[in-house]
Amino acid sequence: MPKANLLTADEVHSLAAQFEYASPEEILGWVWEQFGERAAIGTSFQGAGLVTIHHAVRAGIQLPVFSIDTGLLFPETIELKNRLGSFF
């Protein structure tokens, strides 16, 4: 099993300062370089998740995308998930 890339509190604060004005693509690129396929975009296919997916796709960063189906997703959400699935 690969070693986890754990970050100290100091590293988190340093990264927060480093990425304060970074573009979403820069941040997602760092995540991909640091964690590779162990990183993923979790989404319920609402605004923030869709924007994150958009930035990753636009930057050519192939982060896996997942959603947890709680049984409460609207049919329209499931339809959107299925439609977007063709892009991944």
* Count of discrete domains: 1
Shape: elongated
**Model regions low in confidence, pLDDT < 50 over at least 5 residues:** none
Strand order of the largest sheet: 1-2
- Our Rg estimate from Cα atoms comes to 15 Å
- Assembly state (oligomeric): single chain
Distance between the first and last residues' Cα: 26 Å
Strand content: under 5%
Features:
single chain, 88 residues, mainly alpha, 50% helix
What's this, in brief?
It contains four helices and two strands.
Written overview of the protein:
This protein is mainly α and 88 residues long. The protein has one domain (23-87). It is 50% helix and 5% strand. The chain is built from four helices and two strands, in the order ααβαβα. It has helices at residues 9-18, 24-35, 47-58, 75-84, and strands at residues 41-42, 65-66. A two-stranded parallel ribbon has the order 1-2. Strand 1 (41-42), helix 3 and strand 2 form a beta-alpha-beta unit. Helix 2 crosses helix 3. The protein is elongated. The two termini are 26 Å apart. The model has no long low-confidence stretch (mean pLDDT 90).
